[in-house]
Specification:
single chain; about 80 residues; mainly alpha
């Protein structure tokens, strides 16, 4: 098999549309479409549970993603 550096060099030569196809193929493979699933670490379940507790207690605010992106873009311009 090729080394990661060789794969990266080959990917650099691909047209944009082919890079997108490659990315989608890799994502499908990694997200469970191609076999082995990746288990979330225990701390992730704990963090989600804590967030749910804060939401239930009214200590967590739900933000609109489009609004957050727009605000972040304004700060970085």
């Amino acid at each position: 098999m090729s080394t990661l550096t060789e794969i990266e060099a080959a990917a650099d030569q691909l047209p944009h549309a082919e890079k997108l196809r490659l990315m989608e193929t890799l994502w499908d493979e990694l997200s469970g479409g191609g076999g082995a699933e990746l288990a979330s670490p225990a701390w992730h379940a704990e963090a989600l549970a804590e967030t749910e507790r804060r939401l239930s207690d009214g200590r967590e605010e739900v933000l609109d993603w489009q609004r957050v992106k727009a605000e972040l873009r304004q700060k970085t311009v």
